[in-house]
């Protein structure tokens, strides 16, 4: 019997060895089947990967999340940090057009204008002017220095518009609900012809499926890479003893917490809303989900980011969990002594086994201070709603822009927005940091958002798959999977 079992295991492992030998890397993104093909201004993460792959901009991201050349061969930043000068690869486009600095400038100007009123548009507020200086040189001038600007410029929405050209680095073709992506030769992207460039390349077969189907397919060896894992689906990750796949957690930066959208009863008071934040044991959430090293936080803007003042301190200095809960319990008791009923609050979380674990943990924490938590069937009408977003760039302004009244009117502060606008035009980095710190304090005082920690993003990767790396943006470009040298 042991011999038969060992033989079956060896046969299974041998079969795994052949995965990917057909020259195709099978990638599945957790979502819905049409997510890959979304068009327009506001698209989901699966479609963003496709757009970044087929419509690159001046710069793009590599597998570790670093900024690398896209259409720009190279660039310089002036000493004052207010001017970025890019030298592009000028080349002929299909249809007889030519990619020039003026074409790139016009596409960027249109994209920035279309993004007005979105959170990404707010992030781009420092852009003062885009100029075509010569046939191959584009200059972007800023109102003031911005350390994370190149990271922002690499976002998929700032790729060259599709009505201009498909600039690669991948070409795509659709077959039903599957997208086939192939690396474009360098000469089609403005580079020189390279002999033997195409040897050993892989085609990426990309699709999106619901979490249960994707996880089952990955476990059965149908996929080399599963992307898009979030907290709600973390328990679905394969832990098969004989699996040659690993679960890879991104050390993502961003916002993961609860928007307080209900404002009646107990939640009408900022102090009472803070009682919820005081009661939560964030470390216990990490333990319940089984994710060691999760970066917990009670602050909107994490420490150590550009634009965060050096004198920033923890939110409740010196208070233990027991002391925080004692303070929260006092507020609940005061509410009840004033004739308040309950309190009971409803929490909306995405469907999935990970969300069930998160809700049970939150419910236990709130029960410890006398608050009853109920699971909301849908977001509409819930008191608390999960906010789960990865940052576009590592600056304090991104975090504060997420709560701007133009994009999040139910959890915003006009005073905080005004301070952020002053930071955009600040005379120097110290003044900017001061405005941003004051804006965060103002927004925190409203207690419209209850931070829990960093966004939870995970993937599963077979040992045969090459070109994947964890990164703080939880953005995993498809081009490196092709093994193309450039």
Automatic annotation (TrEMBL):
SUPFAM superfamilies tied to this protein: Periplasmic binding protein-like II
What Gene3D superfamilies does its record include? Dipeptide-binding Protein, Domain 1, Dipeptide-binding Protein, Domain 3, Periplasmic binding protein-like II
Q: Where in the cell is it found?
A: Periplasm
Source organism superkingdom: Bacteria
Q: Which PROSITE patterns match?
A: PROKAR_LIPOPROTEIN (PS51257)
Q: Which InterPro entries match?
A: SBP_5
> Into which family does the record put it?
Belongs to the bacterial solute-binding protein 5 family.
Question: What PANTHER family does this protein map onto?
Answer: PERIPLASMIC BINDING COMPONENT OF ABC TRANSPORTER
The protein in question is named: Peptide ABC transporter substrate-binding protein
Source organism per entry reads Qipengyuania psychrotolerans
């Amino acid at each position: 019997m042991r011999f038969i079992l060992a033989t079956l295991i060896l046969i299974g492992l041998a079969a795994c060895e052949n995965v990917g030998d057909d020259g195709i890397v099978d990638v599945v993104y957790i979502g819905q089947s049409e997510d890959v093909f979304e068009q327009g201004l506001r698209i989901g993460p699966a479609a963003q990967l496709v757009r970044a792959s087929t419509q690159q901009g001046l710069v793009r991201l590599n597998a570790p999340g670093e900024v690398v050349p896209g259409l720009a061969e190279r660039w310089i930043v002036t000493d004052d940090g207010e001017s970025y000068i890019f030298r592009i690869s000028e080349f002929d486009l299909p249809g007889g057009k030519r990619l020039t600095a003026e074409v790139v400038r016009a596409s960027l100007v249109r994209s920035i204008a279309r993004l007005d009123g979105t959170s990404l548009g707010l992030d781009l507020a420092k852009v003062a002017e885009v100029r075509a200086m010569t046939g191959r040189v584009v200059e972007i001038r800023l109102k003031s220095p911005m350390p994370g600007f190149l990271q922002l410029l690499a976002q998929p929405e700032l790729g060259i518009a599709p009505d201009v050209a498909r600039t690669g680095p991948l070409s795509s073709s659709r077959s039903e609900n599957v997208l086939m992506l192939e690396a474009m030769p360098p000469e089609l992207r403005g580079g020189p012809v390279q002999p033997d460039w195409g040897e050993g390349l892989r085609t990426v077969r990309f699709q999106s499926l619901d979490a249960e189907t994707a996880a089952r397919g990955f476990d059965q060896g149908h996929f080399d890479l599963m992307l898009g894992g979030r907290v709600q689906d973390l328990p679905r990750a394969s832990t098969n003893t004989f699996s040659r796949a690993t679960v890879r957690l991104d050390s993502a930066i961003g916002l993961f917490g609860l928007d307080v959208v209900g404002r009646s009863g107990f939640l009408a008071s900022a102090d009472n809303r803070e009682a919820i934040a005081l009661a939560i044991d964030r470390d216990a959430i990490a333990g319940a989900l089984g994710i060691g090293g999760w970066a917990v936080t009670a602050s909107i803007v994490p420490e150590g980011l550009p634009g965060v003042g050096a004198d920033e301190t923890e939110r409740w200095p010196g208070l233990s969990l027991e002391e925080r809960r004692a303070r929260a319990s006092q507020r609940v008791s005061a509410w009840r002594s004033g004739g308040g009923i309950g309190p009971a609050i409803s929490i909306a979380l995405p469907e999935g086994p990970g969300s069930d674990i998160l809700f049970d943990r939150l419910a236990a924490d709130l029960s410890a201070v006398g608050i009853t938590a109920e699971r909301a069937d849908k977001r509409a009408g819930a008191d608390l709603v999960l906010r789960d977003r990865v940052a576009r760039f590592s600056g304090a302004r991104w975090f504060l822009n997420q709560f701007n009244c133009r994009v999040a009117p139910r959890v915003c502060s006009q005073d905080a927005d005004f301070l952020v606008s002053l930071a955009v035009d600040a005379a120097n980095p110290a003044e900017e940091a001061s405005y941003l710190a004051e804006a965060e304090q103002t927004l925190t005082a409203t207690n419209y958002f209850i931070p829990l920690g960093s966004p939870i993003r995970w993937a599963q990767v077979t040992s045969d798959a090459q070109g994947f790396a964890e990164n703080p943006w939880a953005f995993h470009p498809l081009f490196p999977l092709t093994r193309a040298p450039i």
